[in-house]
Amino acid sequence: MKAFLIDRYAKGGAVRLGQSPEPELRENDVMVQVHAAGVNPLDAKIRDGEFKLILPYRLPLILGNDVAGVVVRVGSKVRSFKPGDEVYARPNKDRIGTFAEFIAMDEADVAMKPKNLTMEEAASMPLVALTAWQVLVGRANLERGQKVLIHAGSGGVGAVAIQLAKHIGAQVATTTSTANVDLVKSLGADVVVDYRKDDFEEVLRGYDVVLNSLGKDTLEKSLRVLKPGGKLISISGPPDPAFARQSSSGWLLRQVMRLLSAGIRRKSKRHGVTYSFVFMTANGAQLDQITSLIEAGAIRPVMDKIFPFESTNEALAYVETGRVKGKVVITVK
């Protein structure tokens, strides 16, 4: 099958279009013919080698962490899917590879595609929607009437997180650039801070939750907008002791992870708030719940550009500009 692979980690390197064997179909797996694949900053970071210590992939590696397509075969123990089903998923972190014609995934990680989305729209959703869900529902336990600040509201995760938080009934603030103010308002943001004009930490106060996807400076400034008992949750690091315990890393790497977050955890404690790190995981059951929200119109995809499969390198380069509104997708079939 055709696939885009990396042979070695290289910052800004190209992914290679080549031939790869079809993936092995295990007894709990569904084999999916890929129709479309989402392109994420995570793909570029894996290519660059940023996660090679916590995600020790065997090279050559097929990239890609979002998929929509059609089931063509199922393993002997699969009960939830059959050939012909239209599905979408974020594959397990150990079995990525959606920049290809086929991918095999555990049925527990897969969900039926929302009926009201195209394949391209569906492929844009799993990773970002599951991230938003696992932060706001799973970690923050966000409730109606609470106040949440979602950084980078026009980005992939931010665009979904704003809609999910509004569906829950929270008051939503977000940061974005001047060009994207109307977009984030259309998604439901109640308060929009244009970072080109204002410092969010000077104008926002008394928030229950912050979802951070940006760097260290933004992370530390976010402490000032939280009220005592608030929750600072980051998807861009640094990893915390809980993540270190859950990871299958060796003892030394777990200690390094603890040290990386020691500073922000100390500062959080002084502010009377908690800090935690979320590294999203594949979850078909949660994706089913997200499907219901999409089909009900509570969440809609935000698409920027669709690239043909052959232009996967160009799609990755565009994502790396940091100026993407919502998601970028490649069409495979």
Automatic annotation (TrEMBL):
CDD domains: MDR_like_2. Residues 12-330 form the Enoyl reductase (ER) domain. SUPFAM superfamilies: GroES-like, NAD(P)-binding Rossmann-fold domains. Keywords: Oxidoreductase. Pfam families: ADH_N, ADH_zinc_N_2. InterPro entries: ADH-like_N (IPR013154), ER (IPR020843), GroES-like_sf (IPR011032), NAD(P)-bd_dom_sf (IPR036291), Quin_OxRdtase/zeta-crystal_CS (IPR002364), YIM1/Zinc_Alcohol_DH_Fams (IPR050700). Transmembrane segments: none annotated. One of its GO terms (molecular function) is oxidoreductase activity. The keyword Oxidoreductase applies. The keyword Oxidoreductase applies. PROSITE patterns: QOR_ZETA_CRYSTAL. PANTHER family: ALCOHOL DEHYDROGENASE RELATED, RETICULON-4-INTERACTING PROTEIN 1, MITOCHONDRIAL. This is Putative zinc-binding protein oxidoreductase.
